[in-house]
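Render this sequence as a predicted structure.
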Amino acid sequence: MKYRILLIVSFVTLVLDQATKLYVARTLPLHTMIRVIEHFFTITYLRNKGAAFGMLATSPWRLPFFILVSLVAVVVIVTVIRKLREDQSLAAFALSLIFAGAVGNLIDRISYGEVIDFIFVHWYDHYWPAFNVADSAICVGVFFLALDMIREERRNKGQQR
């Protein structure tokens, strides 16, 4: 079951990630902003050479570093999924989202040398950096992984009594 979850979740997430990035890149000029919800949500076509918040964007070794980190993450995630029990479907789901997000941004880094971002959330003049579906999948996956860890901890405490 855990491998089925990995394949389905990763496939759906990667297709959505790559399709939305391709659509934005082909239909919008760079730095174009389309207001979706006033003072809250904008589609903004950007390219990010760095990581979150543009970290390491100007470093000469950023691309090999990010590719290596992504590849290591993919290997670690697959290794962890292999070790999951069959009843740990939430953990498998969470890790699959993180896996797909890492692969989605890895595809961009290999293809373009940078990541395509386009989801721009803000509250009036308070801005969060632009992101994409892969970034969202990673964040949602981390949330569900933390939830699963709390659930596992409670389950283990219940068995010790």
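Summary. The CA atoms of residues 37 and 121 lie 9 Å apart. The chain has one domain: 2-149.
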